[in-house]
């Protein structure tokens, strides 16, 4: 009668009633409000934030500082050494124009680097669950552990068929022209490219700042180069070439820097002018998405037809506000998408592999009716186990193992209005016995929220959550957090 | 039918969340923000089709207005460019103004139309402009078993493919 095997749960008898192969446990990551944290502090992407969330950059900012130093040093030398001579000799308008250009370059550079490029926030757990369900209907997935086909949706825009891809990290279908930046680990709208020189992605919200930056920088570079040359020439007319170089050594440095950068920057400006006029992104151009070489019928559905409109829209169109609300406070009841740092995001990786075909666990046998379930948790402290009572014997079913990652558990063997506990177990790495893996919480009739799985082997064998009321027929959906996971619904039986 | 809930505060207090419906984006016109007006089956018993469609169409109209490319948006863009975009530090963009209008509209719709039917609209801007999330509530005090059964039944009918073995 009494359950064998370790533990403080000796008095509790559980007979299984309804089990079904179930798969991934959905673990909404509820963020507790710890002293009113702002959303940027728990942002799941690989970004750096400054000034309490006002400034947003990519993780690698070394090259950005190089850009900054190059611009500041070159311009500084120009204003300090060349401008006094030129202002007197030619016209004082030169430092003024130079100053305006410099001001413009710095303004646009900082805007490009510090603003949100158009990051799409990750899906909330409810959204992700809903999408998963819809994908299943569309695919007609069968349980069996086969890898599901890649998820795409097709949509017709302006007569062209565009494929929308599903992002496994962000758990959304990417809007057209959006792309996932692997460096920042974010989906970005109208993704152009990730620019290390500005230390940020270039996307919908900061593309015009980027373009203005490279355009004004080309003008500034050409400006400085031209006037440095003028300066040296004028000086050398007075004192000879070598003496002129000796008198203003800074000019040499400036000339060298400008000479080497002017080709790439002017080239880049020209390239982006072409992209803007045809309303393409760098991404699309590199892939040749809309080139004629793909087919005669291939054309860019986003283009407005004429160059002028395309330019106006790209540069003077409306700017959408940031969708990620960096400086907002985290609400305690708002579900936050799972951050990559905890184990739940590993789900994203395991899901895509979806090797959830669980082979029979050697040595485990289905628990026959009336037998005692054994939840070996060698280190479970005795005082944690709640007291259970028997109030009736329910029919039990065999354990059914997790077979695919998309199944849900139907609890229609439960009598209407009855209580049940959910057990999620995983076999210990070296033993055959099953260990309780996680706890749960009742959210409402038929809904469960599963908290993050504890690591196997910790002292959690007797951690029971509150039992819930399942109104049959109820359906509980699970998402995998672990392989070889077993889900069963247990009915308490009273003494 | 569960008893009518009369206002948003009552709804949040006495009802429990049964399920959520997501209205996805409609990309057939390009990348502009539009939502699908297709009527989700889960709302069949909760709200009239016409009211729902009207709400979504009005929202679509607001978003179209926000993203409209025309004289005023060009003016705003050129002015901003001329000031090296420093003007954004003090001025609110046209888009932000329309978003405020939208949130006021959604609040009003929730109070007048959706909450009395046990539904709640979430502003799309809180969901990254991907979806309009409609939360369906069941009144806790009623024996909502039949209605929650039906809503979870309809919600789970979609997952039937996954549990096909049963």
TrEMBL record, chain B:
Highest taxon in the source lineage: Eukaryota
Short name of one Pfam family: Erf4
Membrane topology per record: Lipid-anchor
Domain Golgin subfamily A member 7/ERF4 span(s) in chain numbering: 21-133
Biased composition (Gly residues): 155-166
GO term, biological process aspect, one: protein targeting to membrane
InterPro entries: Golgin_A_7/ERF4, Ras_palmitoyltransferase
Ranges of Low complexity composition bias in the record: 142-154
Subcellular location: Golgi apparatus membrane
Molecular function GO labels: enzyme binding
Keyword annotations of the record: Membrane
Location of the region described as Disordered in the Swiss-Prot/TrEMBL record: 140-166
Main location: Golgi
GO CC terms of this entry: Golgi membrane; palmitoyltransferase complex
Keyword Membrane set for record: yes
Family, per entry: Belongs to the ERF4 family.
Protein name: Golgin A7 family member B
UniProt organism field: Ailuropoda melanoleuca (Giant panda)
